[in-house]
Structure formats: structure tokens, C-alpha cells
Design goal:
single chain; 655 residues; alpha/beta; Heat Shock Protein 90; Rossmann fold; five-stranded mixed β-sheet; 23 helices
Amino acid sequence: MTAPPENDEISALKKAEAEARAMAEMKSHFLATMSHEIRTPMQSVYGLLELIADEQISTQAQEMLATARKSASGLLEILDDILDLAKVEAGKVELDHFEVPVRTLAYGVLECMEVRLMGKPVELIPKVDEDVPFVVMGDPTRLRQVLINLVGNSVKFTEEGSVILHITTKAQHVKAPDDGLALRFEIIDTGIGMPPQVAEKLFQPFTQADNSTTRKFGGTGLGLSISHKLIELMGGHIGVDSTEGKGSTFWFEIPTMKADEQAKTELPSLDGIAVLSVEDHPKGAKEILSSLTSMGAKVESVPTYAEGLALVKRRRFDVAVVDQGLPDGMGIDLLKEITKLRPFMGLILYTVRNDYGMQYTARVIGAKYLSKPASRLGLGEAVKSAAKRMMTQDYTGPRRLLIAEDTESVRDILRRQLTKLGVDADFVGTGVEAVRALEKEEHGILFTDLHMPDMDGYQLVAHIRATEEENNVDALHRFPVIVLTADVQMAQKQAYLSYGFDECLLKPVSLGQFRQLLIRWGVLQEMEDAEDDVPLEEEPPVPAGDAAPALDLASIEKQMGSIDADVIALLKAFVDMTRPQVEQMRLLHAEGRIAALKEAAHSLKGAARSAGCMQLGDIAADIQTLSSRGDNVGADMIGALEAAFDRAAAEIEAL
């Protein structure tokens, strides 16, 4: 019996839809992978630039360093845009629904844009109509992202005059929801403008006004494309009105609700948490104080770097919320001093600046980077997560750890770190050995690498979760499994949770990160970490040089706490164990055994980075990436690997 023609049409449509979805997923995966692979070495570049900044260098070198850091930060921003675009196009972006303080948002965005004026005679003007509610419901982070993109675009293309951010309730293209309203945001500039045919295609990816504009002003055009997709997700509409030579008006409209017409948002309990707020703007300080106090926190507020530091020396706080731009110093520098005085304090850098380099710096010292303005819920959740004693799990199991890691040199480093922390642990080299060890019920937490022989980390955690499901173990009592990996993407909460892990610890693991995680899980208890007027210890000097050192002594010290005879012996053992591995990789390359080369490169990557041999680890990572894609690994790359190893071995021997 022949199928009706309409069934054939439906089948063809379904097939075409499935192919289109698969193509979009493939493109999204490619963009995300490419961005991740570039971002990983770029973060190392930025970290090295930070180390150089701490050196006593000439004024000319400081200027070159500032340019390099700005360029690195700009590239990280572009990579984040590519990742955002990939997520949006794959339908993986979910909007939050929090309070949005409209006026604070507008003022904060314009304050952030002041640093981009670079001395241009351009006035940034906020204009919010009186009938606009003070607080509406929406996604403050994504709304801020759109405004940063649009206002930043206007600032870039305006040489003189003004950029006005106008917010009104007079929407023309979006209907207000029942009992709600529609807001219209206009960014009006006196810049170069554009003809109508250019404006029509402006919100497409990688599009700017024309080639000459790209050469003069730079940029990828991704910000406008991402803004377009985010506004559509919000149920809104976006567009531009422009006349060449007379400026542009970018606008968007979104449906929303007044916050007081919504059911009250359940705010976190901060009962008993002691918070230090360092904020010099009176309105901002008042908002932080009132918001956190209403959730039960005890807040001390000061306006300057010096007063904040003096308070930290005198007494203990659970969390510090610090503005970046203080009248007598930078907030990030204050947080660095706090980490020396009070290593168990939670840290939050609260800033209007959208600086990707600073985000990386904050992450390195263990601080949360929070963009202004955050909703009350966003600020409260940030403080709760930063308070170490609030994050400590209700954990009553064995304190002995189990570490599943197949690379011997990494095991040695982890063993030494745990000995320093006074924590007992057993080590295994495969997932199968880990399963056998767990059957004895002597361990309380499992740390596992992802890539191991016989059974990898993914299979190991899947086995543990399946066993718990068979035994009807509820989520509150499941066995803690923490992933040990160098994969930055796995550090995203949605990534490690989706595989069944409880947390992620990124390699190379610093001693401070390890300590904080073990405190959080109740394995370690917080100790008295400072007394009144504790003097600050000076940072150990890092050797300066034209080329980046093959051996990153600062990284090793962060992992080990010091560089003593035992650490030097450990590094020499790493050289002895790694030399045959490097020789084997040349042989595998000559024989064309790509799969084996990829596995060897992966093992070397983690071991080298954990031993502070960053250059060697980065080259191994490149070889792993090329092998995974089936691309050709040139003999020059194997030569570079051997040269990096020889250089690292020489520097270790010199210790």
C-alpha cells in the first residue's frame, strides 16, 4: 500500500529539520571546541604577564606589558563571545528571572564605559523616564551584557558629542504582558552612522558596517549578533535607526513585570555571616548594607582600601565584598592582601568593569567576580557561596580520601600536598582499582582523573551512580566524587553535574584550592588564620628574563607551599620518569600511531603542568588536540616538545 503524498512531505520535512538541527549542533560544537583550545593557552599567557608585572621592570617594559595584557584581555573577550554565540545557536542558554534595578543598571553600564572613551570628547548621559519602575523582573546579567555591547558599540564609533542611554515605557514593537509593562531601551549617539542597506544586515554574526570600518575600528561584530539572539530569547525586539554621518539609535524592547507585582523571591539565609563591604559610592554602599542585612548578615561597611585592610587585620570576617575602583587603591590588590592575612575568608570582587583579564586574576586568587548591578538574590547567593563555613557539607563519613590518577608524577604531587594538609589518602591508577577500593568502605571522598586505562573517570562515576540508584540512595547521601582535570569546560557547574560529579578541581591544583575544597566538604576544619596586626609576608622573587621560564616556580610554590629539598627531589623524579615518555612520543609519531600518541600527550600534559613545566604541558596539549582531530602533527612539533623538555630538565637540575 502506497503512503499518501502528504505523509511523504511530512517525512521529508522531519528529515530536513533533523539535518538542520544536527548541522547547528556540529557548528556549535566546533565553535566551542575552537574557542576552548585557544583560550587555554591564552590564560597561561595572561598568567605569565601577571607574574612579569610583579617584577621591577623599566618604564618602557611596563608600557609594553600593559599593551600585551590589554591584547590578551581583548582576545579572551572575543573567545567568550564565540562561546556565547555557540551556546545561543545550540539553544543551551537559559535566562534567569531575578530583580533588575533599572536605574542602577543604567548608571553602572555608563560608568563601565567611561574607561573606553580614551580621552575622546564624548559625554555619556543616562536618561530614565519617571514612570519606569525602580525594579523589574528579568535576567540582570544578560540585560547588562546587551547594554554593554550596544553602548560600547556607540562609544567606539563616536569621536565627539554624546551617547545617551534612554529608558522609557513607550514601547512600539512589543506588547506588554497582562498586569505588566514593556520597556524600551535606546542608545542614541552622534557617531558616524550608516546607510539603510548596511543597518539591515548589522545583527548577523561577523558583520560590521564595511571593510574599512573593520580596519579602522576593529571588532568582530559578534556582540550585536549575540544581543539580537538574547533579546529574542527575552521575547523582545531589537533594531537600529541610522543616518550616515549623523549618528545612530540602537534600540530594543522587552516585556517585563514590576518586581513588587511578583511573588516574593526566596532569598538565601545569611544568618550570622560576617561581611566586610568596601565600597566608596554612598548609594552603592547603602544598597549592599541593606540587602545583606535583610538576609541576616552582619555587615561592616568602609569606603577605602586602607580602612578595609585595617579592619581585616583587627578581626575576622566570613566574606569580603570589595569594589574594584577605590579612591586609594584597586580592589583586586586589597583582595590579594586579604588572602595572605585571612586565607579562609570568602572573596567577592564587585565591579562595574567588564574586564576579562581581571576576571581571570580574580579566579586565580579564588575570588568571585560579580558584575554590578547584581540583584539582591544574586548578591546574597554570591555571599553565601563565598562563606566557607556556609559551604561546608554536612559530612559524617570517613575522612580518608581515595585518589584515582594514572600519572605517577601527578600522584606524587597530590600525595605531598595532602601530607602538608594533614589528610590521609590512598592512590590507585585505574577506575577498576578505584571500584575495588571503594568496596572496602574506608574512604569518604573520591577524586578521579578523567582519562585512565581499563575504566575512565566518566565510566567510574557512572558506575557509582548506577549502584546508588539500584540501592535507592537519595541525592543527599550519595558518595562524593570530585573530578580532577585540566579541561576548563568541565569546571562549568552544568558540565560536571551532568556527568554525575559533585565538583571539579582544575589541574594544576594549587595548595590553596585543595585546602578550600577540603574545608568545604568538612574533611578539614578552619583554623585560626590570623591575629591582630599580622605583618604581610613578601612574595618570593620570580626570576626575570626575556623568555618565559620553562619552569614556573610561582606555580610550583602555590601547589607545594614552598620549594624545598623534597620538592626539588620530586621535580628531578619527574624528569627521570618523563624522559622515556618523550622518547616514546617521537617513536609513536614516526610509526604513525596517532591514537597512542594522543594518549601519551594527554598524560604528559597533566604531569608537566602539575610539575610547573607549563611550556612542555602546552605543547603536549597542542599535540593531543591535533591527534584528536586527526590532523597532522609535524616533526617540528615533536622537536619543540623535546626542546621544551630539555630546557625544563636543565632548569630543574640547576635548582
